[in-house]
Amino acid sequence: MYTRGKRRGALAAAGSMLAGLALVPATAPASAAATLSCRAMAAYPAKWTAGYDFQFAVVNTGTEAFSAWVITFDVPPGDVIYTTWNGSVVQSGQHVVARSYTNTYNGSLAPGASAESIGGVVEGDSAGGLTNITCTPEAPAAPAGPAA
């Protein structure tokens, strides 16, 4: 059982601790770092017996604008991309790397924006079915500094 004097001493000590905490300056919450990210979605606007068209839409899913993107994907075995538009494509076996033309209407995207991007014609028996699709944005080029 506490006596009156011990209780006052404990309350005074607790009050001192709380007063000390109140004197600590509050810090502003750290702002979230800007992120670069995108998503690429494939569509197949036309299909026929020996091939198909593909068209990607790219969405900026980050918080920072970017000036270009790279989409990687795989085509089914035996399929060959023979015509493309709105970007450049390099195919090695089934694996494909597609790059936007920098700073074009479909390469530069603000946060939340989307655009039709690279498309092409594929020769093969598969009627679409691109797999392992990834999208990587490229940061805008830094502004040029003053001439020395």
Characteristic key phrases:
148 residues, mainly beta, five-stranded antiparallel beta sheet, four-stranded antiparallel beta sheet, 1 helix, 9 strands, elongated
* Rg (C-alpha, Å): 29 Å
Category from helices, strands and their pairing: mainly beta
* Number of helices, counting only DSSP H or I runs of 4 residues or more: 1
Which descriptor suits the 3D outline?
elongated
Residue share in helices? 10-25%
**Parts with pLDDT < 50 across at least 5 consecutive residues:** 10-25
Arithmetic mean of pLDDT: 78
Number of strands: 9
- Secondary-structure element series: HEEEEEEEEE
Main pleated-sheet profile: 5 strands, antiparallel
Distance between the termini: 80 Å
Kindly describe this structure.
The chain is mainly beta. It contains one helix and nine strands. The protein has one helix at residues 4-22; strands at residues 38-43, 47-48, 51-60, 68-74, 80-85, 88-92, 95-99, 114-123, 131-138.
Secondary-structure blueprint:
Layout: H1 4-22, E1 38-43, E2 47-48, E3 51-60, E4 68-74, E5 80-85, E6 88-92, E7 95-99, E8 114-123, E9 131-138
Antiparallel strand pairs: 1-3, 2-3, 3-8, 4-7, 4-9, 5-8, 6-7
Provide a concise account of the structure shown.
The chain contains one helix and nine strands. With 148 residues, the chain is mainly beta.
